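ok trying again, last paste got cut off:
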Amino acid sequence: MTTSINIIQPDDWHVHFREDEMLKVVTKYSARVNRRCIAMPNTSTPITSSNQAINYKKLIESNSHSLNFEALIPCYLTDNLNIDDFIYALQNKIFIGGKLYPTNATTNSQYGVNDIKKIYNIFEIMEKENSVLLIHGELNRDDVDIFDREKYFIDEELYQIRNTFKNLRIVLEHVSSDYGVDFVNSNQNIAGTITPHHMLLTKNDVFKNEEINPHHYCMPVVKNEKDLLSLRKAACFDNKNFFLGTDSAPHHTSDKVQYKSLKPGIFSSPCSIELYATIFEEENALENLERFSSINGPKFYGLEINEEYLHLSRKNFDLPDYTEEGNVRVKNFFSDKKINWNVS
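nice, full thing came through this time. structure:
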């Protein structure tokens, strides 16, 4: 039995740091293991300009408790961007790319895009600048079941984007379905991030007896065992096109309650790489963890692979139920389950 592993220091290509006191509390948990993180721009006032991105980057890095941690910021895409500023920010590496949120698909996505064709001019710019389009790939419509939103978005929007902009690099974020895995694997210039919770939970862990487990509720929702197994296979074995993106998304426990305004999001940063190591060990694929966590992401984004290493030991990880500091109280994902690995 393997008792310790060394991997190139990982990056998290999809994480939410939020704002204000929440940001000050949660940032250090991602920075404890990752060299870089893509910080999602769906703050209460979305990050749509170069100045906002510069200020948000500084704020995150100053609260990371690390000298060498880097926050990468994508632009929150809207149909009324300042195009000159957007191009300037791409050319000067202020934006790592652009993030597409279909309207009302997830937290703070009310500023997103209702008619995606209205921003095809932005995709054209991104293709020309060799930038990356990050997509929350769900179609939020009354006639679409919550478990089918990813499939419908792929069929009705993503195929057309792919066929129109063949050289545009695209990341389908937090792939949650067997259908999404197949799409990523069958298209050029497409990659996907995979979260730990989509490889650990099914809908039975969220929806049971007409009640919701609020701390397992996320967008996109977790799905069936078939989807979970497909995601595990994609991450652990066929992982050339997939890489680590936790979608760690903290909310105050007061916002994670069972009523109509229940906020989606799972906070996994305190145990992120430990969860991935546990999953890869369960799949007898520990030798492939480094490629998924530390190599595929920078290669796709055209960045240098990290030089430092991270050491993990096979021992139980004692994770508290909550992260609590000041006025912040957030439920830690998987605190009630066994985690077999720990960062030394």
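cool. Residues 89 and 262 are 35 Å apart (CA to CA). The radius of gyration is 19 Å.
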